[in-house]
Structure formats: structure tokens, C-alpha cells
Amino acid sequence: SEDRSLNFIEEIIEEDIKSGKHGGNVITRFPPEPNGYLHIGHAKSICLNFGLAQRYGGKTNLRFDDTNPETEETEYVESIKYDVQWLGFEWAEELYTSDYFDKLYSFAVKLIEKGLAYVDDSTSEEIAGQKGTPTEPGVPSRYRDRSVEENLRLFSDMKAGVYRDGEKVLRAKIDLASPNMHMRDPIIYRIKHAHHHRTGDNWCIYPMYDFAHGQSDAIEKITHSVCTLEFIPHRPLYDWFIEQLEIYPSKQYEFARLNMTYTVMSKRKLLQLVNDGYVTGWDDPRMLTISGLRRRGYTAASIREFCERIGVAKRENIIDVSLLEFCVREDLNKRAWRRMAVLDPIRLVLTNYPEDQVEIFQGENNPEEENGGGSREIPFSRELWIEREDFMENPSRKFFRLGVGLMVRLKNAYIIKCDDFRKDEAGNITEVHCTVVWGTRSGEDNSGLSVKGTIHWVSVPHAKTAEVRLYDRLFRVEDPGSGEGDFKEYVNTESLQVIPGAYIEQDMATAEVGKGYQFIRKGYFTLDKESTPEKLVFNRTVTLRDAWAK
Ligand code: ATP
Ligand code: MG
Ligand code: MG
């Protein structure tokens, strides 16, 4: 990360440090609303906020922006904390906007006392109707000129539970003619008799986002409050509250949110996929949630690298999901142990190999590592499973695998020659018969033979059975969110393929969740959380090459 040019926020920070603004401090925050699981878009914000603090010797708070009691839950809080840590970041403080409810209430009282806020009895329809248009000013509510005393009393009654939901709101008194609609007397508190996941039933009034966010930043002395572009029009209001309340001058900066092809990127939409059963949960390996990516076999390092590569822009764009796949391939290539697994098996019989003989071959764990990352033992016997597609009854001239008369190398073992095959009544190949070419053991081959193809295999009596889950993109179209109609119509119903009976090397019985494996020629895989010693389950993280590349 040191060899790239500065992004625009880093440039701002370096200026601020030079000029001594904020006393040279850098304090950022990541402010999720606990109303869903984090997705890859949040990862971008996490990497940016924590990355800035790391780079400039500052700190980052994790602040739960929990001002909407109906949609927020403790389950989401826990998952968010887990995901941020898993991504490799440590927050300075774990904070909750709800911890500031008393403080925010007193900020509202202060505004009322300054004549800058009023209680409005209008309905939400009336308020919307009075807003005006960008070219025409709004109309004052008939409650706009209530006295300070009356406003204080009514606001206190709102808090005390005297009124029902929607009966009254508190509005800031700013400018009904402002070209910025957010400045036209925005609502800052509403009545909601709802149970809050932390404050329980203590409150029946809750602050609006705009009244909570900037003030929370100020309370924490956040120096650089980074958010996404849609908050640009909120910035004057952010600054206005800070100025009127005479609190710490936090500053808001906006960057382009991450959009990606073949997915939707909003917790609200992801929740629909979960609730309507399109996926098995927030951590379904097809979801671009942090938990889904983790279960799919993505590493934290690959996600951080992805966020680094996409950079921090000031204009919206859409990133191809294949870049994320590229990043995980690159990372797993460095760390994943190589193993052999046969996903679509047919039986291969070595007719010249003694029936009860077993040989043990050595296979290196990872050729990218020093000394191959150590090695494992691979048992070899007369009967092997090979991939159905590695045999052809009538091989074409460019087919360098098995067909009668052709030779291949069995990975880590012998060269073999194909002599014959068996078929069932339906015409399916059931067995391939070959002979071992003696003197061709890998690493000790002085036969002078050279063969073009190498195939993977697993010894029949030693193989473990596993369920293997192959995933495709969850949506059939590049931008499911923008099309006509409901985004769920674009769900790819073929996005999960389950292979119930794959054969894998015996030592994969000790595979670990969270570790990546390369199944040679088949892709990168990881153990699924549903796996048991009786029934192993693997997820394919990604294929070895980009199958979608044109
Ligand atoms: P969603 O629409 O998915 O619910 P959100 O912005 O409402 O997203 P928050 O929990 O409020 O979700 O987000 C926490 C932080 O993550 C915010 O600062 C937000 O700007 C940032 N964030 C959310 N989505 C993205 C994204 N796609 N790209 C970059 N940052 C994002
Ligand atoms: Mg939000
Ligand atoms: Mg949201």
C-alpha cells in the first residue's frame, strides 16, 4: 500500500496534518446500522476508515448507528463485530449512538432554547406537502412560531410518552427557501413506541439520522467522517448542527460507494433474498456478504487486496466481480494446499498392477512455497477414480488425455497407457482399462517417454467421499438492481450445483474450516461449516481460471 499514489482523502488528511487542523489527529469511525450483515461494500468502507487511521497513526471507532429500533437487532451487532475483526481490524472503542440518547436529547433542547427547533403537530403528509420544490420555497407550518416555552414543554411531553406515534415531531428551524431540501426545516426527532435492542423501553422518541450522525462524530471527536456520495446534500445540515450546538468540528467527506456486477448491494435487498428463501441465509456462499464470502472460502487478505485495488473514487462506477475472484485466486495460489479430488468419477483399472499392492507416493503441499510446503502421502493401488471427462471413446487429435492407445501421466505417480474400456447397456463408460508403464515413477522416470497430459486421480480403496458444492453467480444479469421490475426476477436459479459423491484424498478428512485447498485442475475449495466427519462438505471458492473471460 506504500507504493501507490495517495487517494483524495489521504491528500486532505496530509494537508490537515500540515496545517495543524484537529491538532494533527486522525480519528475515523466505521458506523454500521445493525440492521443486517455486512457486505463487500462495507468492507470497502472498513478498509478505508481503518486504513486511514493506521496510515496516520490515528484510531478508528466502531460505532453502531442504532437509531431505528424496529429494524435493529443484537444478532446483527455480533455479526458485524466478528466480520470487522475477521477482516483484520481492531477498533479503538466500541460505541453506540444509543449511548448518546441523553446527550442528543439535550442538544435538541439547546436548539429549542436558541429558537432553532419547534414541535410540529402536522402529519407526515402535511409536512411533505409543505416542503415545496427545488425551485419553489416551502410553506411554513402553522406550528412554526410556537414559543420556546411551549416547545420545551411539548418536547418533554413527547419524551414522556404523552403522544402516540406520528402525533408530533421536532423540526429544526432553518430555511424553508433553501435550495437544499435537507435545510427546509428537517425533522430531527420522531415518536416511536418501539423496543430498542439496547435501551429497551426507555425511549419513545428517536433522533433522525441527520441529527444523530454528525453529533455522534463530534462527541467522539472524529476528525474525518467518511461516508458515501449520497450524503453530499446532507453536509450543510451536518455542519449547521455542529455550528449551532458549538460542538467539536468534525468534517464529512464523501467517496463513491462500491457497486459490483451480478449482485445487489444493499442490506434491505439482501434481507429479502434471505427472507424469501432465494438463499439459505446471510452467509450463503453465493451472497457477497462478508460472512458469505468467508464461508465460500475467501480470505480476509484477498478482500483487503480487492479494496486496495479498486481505490477510492469521487464518482460512482461499477466494479466487475471478476476482480474480486482474481484477488482470491492470487491469494489462494500462494497459500492453498494442493490435493486431488475427482468430482465426476469413473473407475480406472490398472490391469498389470498387483491386486493387493499399495504404494505410497509423495505429493508436495504447495509448489509456490519453499520446499513445496512439505508433502503428504498419497496411496496408490490397482483401482483408481479418475474424472469422466479425462477419457474419450473417440478422442480427437488434440485430446491429450485417455483414449485407447493414448498415454498420460497420473499426477505424482506413473505414466499409464490406455488399452480398453467397458460400457453399460445405456452406452455410458463404466470402466477404463490401462497398464502402468514401469520405470516412470514421478521424479525417478528415466524411460525417456514424454506425454502431454497429466491427470488427477484418487485410489478407490483409500478415497473419502465428499459432497461438493459448486456455485455460479447469484444473478443472471450484470445489474439486477437497475432493471425493470423486481430484482429477484433476475436470480439465477442454477447458481448452486451439488455433487453428492465426489472422491477426495484420505487426508482431506482432517480439512479445516477457513483453510483453502486447491483441488488440482478443479479450483479452490474450502470445508463448509455443515461438514461433519461422517459427511464431508466442500464449497468451491473459485475456479482456477476465469470461466467468464471473453
Ligand atoms: P445498505 O444500503 O447496504 O444498508 P448502508 O449505507 O445503509 O448500506 P450502513 O450500515 O449505514 O449501511 O453502512 C455503514 C458504512 O458503510 C457507512 O459509512 C456507509 O457509507 C458504508 N457503506 C455502505 N455500503 C457501501 C458501499 N456499497 N460501498 C462503500 N461503502 C458503503
Ligand atoms: Mg446507513
Ligand atoms: Mg441502509
Automatic annotation (TrEMBL):
InterPro entries listed in its UniProt record: aa-tRNA-synth_I_CS (IPR001412), Gln-tRNA-synth (IPR004514), Gln/Glu-tRNA_Ligase (IPR050132), Gln_tRNA_ligase_bac (IPR022861), Glu/Gln-tRNA-synth (IPR000924), Glu/Gln-tRNA-synth_Ib_cat-dom (IPR020058), Glu/Gln-tRNA-synth_Ib_codon-bd (IPR020059), Rbsml_bL25/Gln-tRNA_synth_N (IPR020056)
Record localization: Cytoplasm
Residues of the Glutamyl/glutaminyl-tRNA synthetase class Ib anti-codon binding domain: 336-436
Annotated EC: 6.1.1.18
GO annotation terms (biological process): glutaminyl-tRNA aminoacylation; glutamyl-tRNA aminoacylation
PROSITE patterns (alphabetical): AA_TRNA_LIGASE_I
GO cellular component: cytosol
Gene Ontology MF terms: ATP binding; glutamine-tRNA ligase activity
Superkingdom of origin organism: Bacteria
Motif placement: 'HIGH' region: 32-42
Catalytic reactions on record: tRNA(Gln) + L-glutamine + ATP = L-glutaminyl-tRNA(Gln) + AMP + diphosphate
CDD domains: GlnRS_core
Coiled coil ranges: none
Record domain tRNA synthetases class I (E and Q) anti-codon binding: where: 454-528
Subunit composition and interactions: Monomer.
Protein's name in the database: Glutamine--tRNA ligase
